[in-house]
User: What shape does this take?
Amino acid sequence: MAEKEMQAREKMEMKSPAEGTRDVPMYIPAVDIYESEDALVLVADMPGVGSDNVSIEIRDNQLTLRGTIQLEPGDKERLLLQEYGVGDYFREFALGRTIDQAKIEASMKDGVLTLTMPKADIVKPRKITVKEG
Amino acid sequence: MALIRWYEHPEVARPGWELDRLQKEMNRLFSDFWGRGMSPFRVGVYPAVNVSEDTKNIYVRAELPGMKPDDLEISVEGDTLTLRGERKLAQAGETVNYHRREREGGRFRRVLTLPTKIDPGAVDAFFKDGVLKIVLPKAPEVMPKQIQVKTS
Assistant: This one.
């Protein structure tokens, strides 16, 4: 792992049918989603988004992530080379009924959003011990 | 059987039709390449950078989400800027089951040649919300000078 070369992954622009009100492009954040015994964890890369500018919404089992960036007042700067686009982030996921929506926790650090979604008690694996008798 | 003169045949009528066809084919290939919802910024190197300038400085920006300033090494030598580092992804443990794995980790090195001479002693770097911004002040000799016109 330590010697692994970084693979360049292109930022994906979102093609939305509805036009955004903000005149900035919209990107699809790269995510990791993993499931442990008692929670589903989502990690999303949203560089440029501070903790005040991220919104997480759950409605009808649909999880919506939105991140807005603050454009720097860099009007006097002349662009010499552009290899990536700067814009907002948007991504939606359909959640199963297995998430305890009241207990979702989110944290944003260094442009990475981590969402911990505990599983509802009913779906947690229960160990049943077989008694003798 | 209808007799047509050979040059009236649509495909052989004009000299160089073969070249035209090739050109069309190439255009189609390229539009396919760009048309897959990808941005035109394809570079294939990490990290992708945006470089801009104003009268005083050159700015180099890169998106490095989840990285710490300590994981980054920035050096300037002459007009060459080198960015080196390692993006470590937090390990989730072995008992978890991955549903999606799109984020990448690993070591990287990027070398950039700057468009003008800079003052290496005054380079500053800032890291905020996963975005690195390097401010490289231009060397005094390349700064634009205002020339006052005097009345004689």
In short: Chain A touches chain B through 47 residues (CB under 8 Å). The first strand of chain A starts at residue 12 and ends at 13. The mean pLDDT of chain A is 85. The domain at 47-71+85-122 of chain A is CATH 2.60.40.790 (Immunoglobulin-like).
